């Protein structure tokens, strides 16, 4: 799942070397914290959050078989 987020994010940004994903997992959920260059934050979020919402939908669909809640946070 981490690789999927990295591939999507690196395709969107101007500074792909600054893209990083940190994973925190507990009993009920998995939190993926996506960190990008401050100049690329708008590109990852998109107009009215459309790109961020689409990315979260793809990740949630890919993780549907696991019984854990999947959260994607975007930080600069």
TrEMBL record:
Subcellular location field: Cytoplasm
Gene Ontology BP, a term: peptidoglycan biosynthetic process
Alphabetical UniProt keywords: Cell shape, Cell wall biogenesis/degradation, Chaperone, Cytoplasm, RNA-binding
Gene Ontology terms for molecular function: RNA binding
Keyword Repressor among UniProt keywords: no
InterPro entries: KH_dom-like_a/b, KH_sf_prok-type, KhpA
One of the Pfam families matching this protein, by short name: KH_KhpA-B
Entry keyword annotation includes Disulfide bond: no
Chief site of localization: cytoplasm
GO terms under cellular component: cytoplasm
Function: A probable RNA chaperone. Forms a complex with KhpB which binds to cellular RNA and controls its expression. Plays a role in peptidoglycan (PG) homeostasis and cell length regulation.
Oligomeric form and interacting partners: Forms a complex with KhpB.
Matching PANTHER family: RNA-BINDING PROTEIN KHPA, UPF0109 PROTEIN SCO5592
HAMAP family in alphabetical order: KhpA
Family: Belongs to the KhpA RNA-binding protein family.
Name the UniProt record assigns to this protein: RNA-binding protein KhpA
Lineage, top ranks: Bacteria, Bacillati, Bacillota, Bacilli, Bacillales
């Amino acid at each position: 799942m981490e690789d999927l987020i990295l591939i999507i994010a690196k395709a969107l940004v101007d500074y792909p070397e600054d893209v990083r994903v940190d994973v925190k997992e507990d009993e009920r959920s998995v939190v993926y914290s996506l960190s990008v260059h401050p100049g690329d934050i708008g590109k990852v979020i998109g107009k009215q959050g459309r790109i961020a919402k689409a990315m979260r939908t793809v990740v949630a669909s890919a993780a549907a078989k696991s019984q854990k809640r999947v959260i994607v946070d975007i930080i600069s």
